[in-house]
Every structure is written in C-alpha cells, then in structure tokens.
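LOG
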Amino acid sequence: MSFLSRVGSGFRRSGGFIGDVFSELKKVRWPNRKELTSYTLIVLVTITLLAVFLFGVDLGISSLIEWVLGK
C-alpha cells in the first residue's frame, strides 16, 4: 500500500468520524441557563477553597522549613 493511498484512506475514515461526532453531539443533554449558573458557581467556590487550602499548606511548609533551617 502506497503512502498516498494510506493518506486517502485516512481522510475517508476521518469523514466517518466527524459524522459520528455530530451524531453523538445531538444526543447530549445540554444544561439550561439556571443549571449552568449553579455549576459555574460550584466550580468557582471549589477552586477558591482549594486555593486557600493550598496557600495555607504552602505557608505552613515554608514556615516549617525556615524553623528547621534556623533563619
């Protein structure tokens, strides 16, 4: 099988793949505006809490390292 025929068969298969993608996207249940707003709020609150937690852990570890090194 030559290189060009392999490339051509790849393009033919990708056309079927794109059709399958659109078919699956039609089956997706998209969230409405209210759901999207609440999901976004949950994500933002979670990220904020995680950032505060990691800040505290980082501050604690750096304080511990400074104490161990005697600075």
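LOG (cont.) second protein
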Amino acid sequence: MRKLAAPLAALMLAACGTKPPEPEPTVEVVPETEPAKEEKPVLSNSTLKYLANRKLKPQPTRPLNVKSRCSHTDEIGTRMRLDLLVKNAEVKTFAAQVTMKEHGACRFDLEDFEQVEKLPQPLLRHKRAGDCTVRMWEQGSHVTIAFNSCPSVCEGKAFDYLWPIIVDARNGRC
C-alpha cells in the first residue's frame, strides 16, 4: 500500500499545482442587416386615418392682429354686436353682446377681464368669475372668439346657446 501511496500523493500534488486552461474568448458575429425602412405609423383613430394623407400644415404662431366693429342678426333672431381691436396679441378693445331670442343675452366687456396670455393665443380671464375665459385665435383668414365657462356673464340660459364669434380678419365682418 505504501508503494501506491507515494505515486498517488505525487499525482495529487501535480494536479493541484497546474492551472486549468482558460477558455478562449468567443467572438459573436452579428450578421449585417439592411437599414430599417421608415414605416408610417399605424393610426387607430378613424379621424386620424382621414387626415393622414392630406397635406395639412400647422398654423404659424404669430401675434394676432385684428380689428372689427360689426353687428349681425341670423335667421332665428340671434343678434350679435362686436367691437374688437387686437394689436400684436394685446387686446386693446373688446365688447361683445349676443342676444338669443327667448333665452337672454350675454355681455362681455374688456373692463371685466384681464389678459393672462398673449401667445400662442390671447386669453382673457374674468376678474370675478375666475372660470370664465375668452380665447381668440387665427385660422386662415378668420379669427375665432370663443367663450368658456361664462354662465355668470349671461342672463337666464343664454350661455347654453352661445356659439363662438367668427370674424373675417381681412375686412372685419362677423
């Protein structure tokens, strides 16, 4: 047994003294791919599908300039009077009165409002009724004056029937 013990011990010591070979680093070859083609986004909303192929351009952001002094009565008897002057997005004059037959009237006067924004759109906020706002924006050759949350400025249920006022910026007509 002693004869076997000596070679076995030498073999064990030899095994401990040598390092195991390190594995060779492997280089992964990635196949070349073609550049990705631009794909049009998939539009899920049906409205966006109709707009996708049109050549629509964004409205430029520029200071609003409009002057109008007009009055208009429509077919159902709604009367509207407007006195408006906006220079470089600053509202200088604003007085609007819209009377809806059998529903009452809404009156807007610049004295009751403060201008809180100029760009991208002039925005007026009522001094006492904080939710009431008047926003003006240009769309092509027309300027829209829209009213939001202003029932306190109107009599009766007139605000429920109030539509935006549209002015032709070229000639000031309502």
